[in-house]
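Backbone shape codes:
***
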Amino acid sequence: MAASLIHIDMLTVLSLLYLAFIATIVGLRHLGLVARAL
């Protein structure tokens, strides 16, 4: 039971890191486009 909970926690942390990584890349690209437009 505890092992499965730890496994779920690992998956949650990994997915959150993945989403944060993609959000950062998209945000930086968006900022770059805005700066280029200015």
Summary: The CA atoms of residues 25 and 31 lie 10 Å apart.
